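U., I forgot to send this yesterday:
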Amino acid sequence: MVDWYTLEYWLFYLLHSKKTHMNADALQEDITYISEQIKALIAEVQKVVIGQDVLIRNMVIALFARGHIILEWVPWLAKTLSIETLAKTLGVDFSRLQFTPDLLPSDLIWSQMWNQKTHEFMIKKWPVFAHFVLADEINRAPAKVQSALLEAMAERQITIWDQRFVLEEPFVVMATQNPVEQEGTYSLPEAQLDRFLLKTVLTYPTPEEEIEIMRRFSGASPIQNVHEIIPHEDILKMQNAIDLVHVSDAMYGYVRDLVLATRDPKTYWCDRLTPYLQFGWSPRASLALVRAAKVMAVIHGRSFVIPEDVQEIVTDVLRHRLILTFDAIADGVTSEDIIAEIVKTIPTV
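Result:
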């Protein structure tokens, strides 16, 4: 059975010129190829990383949606291993910085060094000047260090005195935080959390995966070599193709309703949520959801977005953007509960 969003997509192109038909066919061919490449990329990472399929998928979505991702749960769940392995399969630069309470912004961005040959100061660029930047345990650094990432994440550039350095694409910040340990940690500002396209909460491996982890990682050489699946120069071309994925007016309306339901719950049949919402989602949430849904559609081999694409990624895109009231905390209501209620309530047609 063909749903309304698929039918609307084809009607859109049937009502346009022959040139548009040709462009649509060419785009579908490109999307089919990109979908196959992404699946091959994920499979290559899974040669090393056991389980954590959602984590791997979301890192790929962050990459091709030109966003950033924050990963949360206890240590030793393959967060760092997944990021490093993905960088190898893409042939991009990877840097890792361990965030600590005594870290300074200059440790992250740049520092001034004396050049004995030229007898003048020179700027030394630090870890943020890489394609993949792993901010490990980002909540252990004070606010001034966390905020040092904001310009890089939002503007993809660094300002040093009177000079601006544009960061080379692709540029993805992948941050991790441990929600269990509270000693020596600092909560991330809402402004910085909103800069992350996705927040992924990891899970423990299954019993079968636990056995496989022990088998693979208890030897002398547990990690398999991975191959470069997508060349660095092809990443930008694939990102540009994904930007062309079709989003219908009905889909824009669906995303709008999901977001506005947190700002005015009564208008969108979500009266029960009113006591739990201090602030709703901003327009950045709408943009993030559309961008992530486009990549999800491509993973499924489609050149147009349907509601299932949005629903599959909505929790990871929006869970960290809600600001809840004390009533929600007291009643044990989480962001995930609110998102599930909204998705269940808002009609797709």
